[in-house]
Amino acid sequence: AAVGLRDPVGRGNLSGRLRAVETAAFRRRQGAPPAAGPLAAAMSELALEELSALAAIYCEPDACEVLAVSETHGITFRIQITVKELLDTDVLLKLLFHL
């Protein structure tokens, strides 16, 4: 399950997206042609699984989100958290990854 991941671009949460990826992988195994190359689909599938695991371990609820998923351009993923600075002020930290 994809604990803590959300998808703000309107395609559902990551666990729903993982089900869609699994369904697409099943269809490919049944002979349906992949949208891009099979290597791209497999890489995307593995990356989404890895992101789900990392988010479940390290992210607080709603701190991690998938911004975009594309078999040709990869996955864009953001971690957004607030940290305390030395002077006791909150600093918003945004980490953006393009996989």
UniProtKB/TrEMBL annotation:
Gene Ontology annotations of biological process type: positive regulation of hypoxia-inducible factor-1alpha signaling pathway; positive regulation of protein sumoylation
**Keywords for this protein:** Cytoplasm
GO cellular component terms, semicolon-separated: cytoplasm
Instruction: Indicate yes or no for the key word Signal.
Output: no
TM ranges? none
Instruction: Enumerate the InterPro entries for this protein.
Output: RWDD3 (IPR038840), UBQ-conjugating_enzyme/RWD (IPR016135)
Subcellular compartments: Cytoplasm
Recorded protein name is RWD domain containing 3
From which source organism is this entry? Hypotaenidia okinawae
